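Trying the structure run again after the queue cleared.
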Amino acid sequence: MVNERNIINLLRDLVSINSVTGNEKDIINYLKKYLEESGIQVTLQEVENNRSNLIATTENGKNALILSGHVDTVDVVEGWLTNPFELTISNGRAYGLGALDMKSGVAILVELFKELHNRVKNLDLWLVLTVDEEGHSYGMYKFLEEFTKSNRSKFIGAIFTEPLPGNKIALVDRAFGRFAVDVKIKIEGGHAALGDYDFSIDLEKIVKGLRTLNSYRKSSNIGECKYAVSRLEAGGGFLSYPDKVVIRINHIAVPPETLDSTIREVKEAFASAGLEVEVTPIRRPTPFLEYFDCSNSFIAEVFSKFVSERDVALSVFDGNLTAMYGIPTINIGPTGGNIHKPNEFVELESIAKVYEILKKGILYIEDLLKQ
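Done. Tokens:
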């Protein structure tokens, strides 16, 4: 049985370490020492600017499973009722920044690796803890670029413990993709005191374009796509109307949508509102994360024996990348609430449940490989 106290104690330590994206060094060093104290050899893979992934592996067989989670968190936002860097337990919940997304998942994987690394004999386990998931998934991208070249044929699956969908423990074997573009809308502008220009007319056109865009609904076996605005910039100095508006639009995508089709639809939607726009993909150091469907994979079939519910990841995560690199990917994570909000929490009872599900599934695969 899982030693839940060990996981909670580790979670408490992880929450106490500020690991906002870009500041992951301390938590990686802590986890390195923590694993080494159990006799586990650890490798740090440099990502950039003194930021490193943590990798620990066994050397048991020709087939391997990746167990992965990210150590970074979003920044603290206003509204916390407790210290976000101190795990606070109340009424079966543990509160703290990253308690759900996803330091509890990391704690589960670390303790699971500690228990199983000497137990499995026919299966390699790769514990891969990454940086920058809340940014551009640069940590996972660097891992895959370096290690899949020589090990791709070994990886029979990747398992993540993200809080997806968050409100229930489920086998997540499909995920939406994400394309993001900046839309530059050139407008007339002018002196705001002269009254010779009505900015509200352009605003009405912009709103019409956004509404038209959001009406583009496509259904698939993953779900229904949607567009969402994440940033809006307008205005200038002095007493002037803005001469342009820039809108960042995220496309929560499903098959067969692409970046090119996203750009085309955005242009068409605003053109229908009488606006000519310039659409450019946002700049990022990694590929856009594409949708995936691993519901028919071997690893999904195995874990469906131990999880009653199956679901879709509404948000992109590092698992989109592993799937893009041809590694069958699933996610089974703990439950809780307030992700990326104040008073984030994980449901304590879900931690042991996820641990046991993962353990049973991995040992089941180990038994199959003995045959």
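The longest strand covers residues 177-186. Worth checking whether this holds up in the mutant runs.
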